[in-house]
Amino acid sequence: MAEDNVSIFSGRESRYLAEKIAESNGRPLGKSIVTEFSDGEFQPSYEENIRGKDVFIIQSTFPSADNLLELLMMIDAAKRASAKKIIAVIPYFGYARQDRKDKPRVAIGSKLVANLLTSAGVHRIITLDLHADQIQGFFDVPVDNLYASSIFYPYLKQLGLENLVMASPDTGGTRRAASYAKALGIGFVICYKQRAKPNVIERMELIGDVEGKDVVLVDDIIDTAGTITKAADLIKSHGAKTVRAFCTHPLFSGNAYERINSSVFDEVVVTDTIPLKQHSDKIRVLSTADLMSEVINRVQNFESISSLFKYK
What we know:
With 312 residues, the protein is an alpha/beta fold. It is 29% helix and 27% strand. The chain contains eight helices and 14 strands. It has helices at residues 15-25, 66-80, 109-120, 149-159, 174-184, 226-237, 256-261, 289-301; strands at 6-10, 32-36, 42-46, 54-58, 85-90, 124-128, 143-146, 164-168, 188-197, 200-207, 214-222, 242-250, 267-271, 283-286. The strands form three sheets. It has a seven-stranded mixed beta sheet. Strands 1-4-5-6-7 form a five-stranded parallel beta sheet, sandwiched between helices. It has a two-stranded antiparallel sheet with strand order 2-3. A hairpin with a 5-residue loop joins strand 2 (32-36) and strand 3 (42-46). Helix 1 crosses helix 8 (289-301) and helix 2 (66-80) runs parallel beside helix 3. It is globular and about 60 Å long. The model has no long low-confidence stretch (mean pLDDT 94).
């Protein structure tokens, strides 16, 4: 496929990441603008020819909902500008926590978003650490669900922790913690929680031994940081030597920063799928740019993507 057949564009809120991806890919970031009206309405437009090109649009869909709407409008604009293929690169896929009806009379938000993206004209989705794997089945186009473990493993190895144990902050993340533990050949523990209501934990218990261990909690999302900081407190109280968290998507809403800064964590390691709102000495950010760039190349060259996530 011709080298100049690829164009990389970005929504406004993910431009910080798109610039790094484009640089890693050896391409200039495509020119686009967003016209804003006084009432808050906006209109994205491409400022260069994309006819017959494979257009990669980079945009995470974290709040506000304008990020999702802007992505949809950019897809529609690319379709109407006769782009050959439109690939949405969504580092953080918002509304993924709404993957099922967990009570009567609620929407399945992630299915609705999948329908919107498909109707807008997207040909492929590239995303990172979906909250629920089954969301891939909501699409009728190919979905490449990448794994941040390929970024976290090298950093974890670099730390040189001798008594490493993986941990899940809740039972829902057991599979994730188990996959890390299996790849590294170590054990894992689970924090079992009971909620009084959303974002409020009534009780939490630890399943497993952490005495004298270097514990790493893994999760895909930190929102208010209530669960993960409470899990860290519990693990530390059971004699853990150090406690770290590895999380893909740092939503960090509400009192998240205050909770992390006052927590027992030695370090909270996240990726740059969502920009941080403030600095914290306890938070370290690892970039996804090189991974996303490599996946873009492999999509274009019809090469294996799964081989990127075979940890040795």
